[in-house]
Specification:
The chain has 108 residues and is an all-alpha fold. 81% of the residues lie in helices and 0% in strands. It contains 6 helices and no strands. InterPro entries: TPR-like_helical_dom_sf. This is Tetratricopeptide repeat protein.
Length: 108
């Protein structure tokens, strides 16, 4: 069985590899089936498209689930700072809540 969504996302990425949304969509899809590839795409986004705010919430949660605590912590902090810089209050609030939950889980 083939994954037509993944195939379509890969085609979009090949057409425009510099579009951060294409990388983001691939990271999200690969997170379901191939965590190593998902991690690669999240890292590419964080490096090559550091201003792409949607990455931070999901990337931090992804790395936290894989016990990469320091990396997740750094991603949450950078995302919170970026949301403030971009004056994106909703995303800022979501990241702060997620970060607090992350810290609470680390204390348990």
């Amino acid at each position: 069985m083939t994954n037509s969504l993944l195939e379509n996302l890969l085609a979009f990425y090949r057409e425009d590899p510099d579009d951060p949304f294409n990388m983001y969509a691939l990271a999200m899809e690969y997170a379901k089936s191939d965590p190593a590839k998902a991690g690669q795409f999240y890292n590419m986004l964080l490096t090559e498209h550091s201003a792409y705010l949607p990455t931070y919430y999901h990337a931090a949660a992804f790395f936290a689930l894989r016990d990469k605590v320091e990396q997740a912590d750094e991603i949450y902090r950078k995302g919170i700072e970026l949301a403030l810089l971009q004056k994106n209050n909703k995303t800022h609030q979501e990241l702060v809540r997620a970060y607090r939950n992350f810290l609470d889980e680390m204390d348990d």
